[in-house]
Amino acid sequence: MKIFDVGVIDNHAYILLEYIESGRLDRILEETKKFTVDKTLNLLEDIANALIEQEKHNIMAYTEAYASPDHYNKSITNQSDLYQLGLTAWQCLSGEILKNLRQSDFAIPELKSYRQDVPAEVVKIIDNLVKKEASQRYKTAKDLLDDIYLFKYHDEYPVGAIKGSVFIAISYDDRFNATYKMLNRVAHNINLKCIRMDRLHFQEEIWKNIALEIEHSDIIIADFSELKEGCGTNSNVITEASHARAIGKKIIIITQDKPEDLPFDWRYLTILQYSNTKEGLEEL
Description:
The protein is built from 10 helices and 7 strands. The protein has helices at residues 25-32, 37-56, 69-73, 78-94, 120-127, 141-154, 177-189, 206-216, 235-246, 278-283; strands spanning 3-9, 12-17, 164-169, 192-194, 219-223, 251-255, 270-273. Helix 2 (37-56) packs antiparallel against helix 4 (78-94) and helix 2 (37-56) packs antiparallel against helix 6 (141-154).
């Protein structure tokens, strides 16, 4: 779904969306009763892309029947919109329309009590959308979309709600897989997102997306290890680290080589040397 324009007319905000030939969701559900998992994921993906654009322009709106606890507490954020999306997805999968959520303290029944064919990964995605406390939901539509892509295109388990994110600039060579898995495990243990760029599903030019990922990350870890002896550091890693450095991001350099062998202008940063062994990775 494309967004063509946003603005304000007579103190009323508006958003101009691409017209999609379809019917009302409630009427479609009356006929089909429940959506398939794939159809629900496609719905989440399309709306998440629209919400990303909406977040950029700080547009907030809601429907009373889908209002989150935040709307009643007057603490509306992007996460309030995500709650409404999660409730819509829950409705599509369960075939039920929840009423008077406020009176029931926003208690949403478990999906498995309605159907058993929804994968645990999809249940986790929806659970992370409809948490009563906003701090326990996805922070942005981009985080939601990343999880959808992890499951939908790579059969990986979603990350869920996070406190922040770590950008790992590392070669995709097989010998770096163990290093990435270790960093990923550590990040998850402290509720941080850590996603390899080759696991993201790009709809636009890749370097534009890489730049955005770096800008949205809280810390950058760059592996400056040589690909092969005498070949130097991966040029893509240097490019990503350079961009992070240029915009003032916190950077940690890791390397399997001697720190003094790094280019001079990188030596004053935090550098951790490690060996690519089980013991070396545990020490790192």
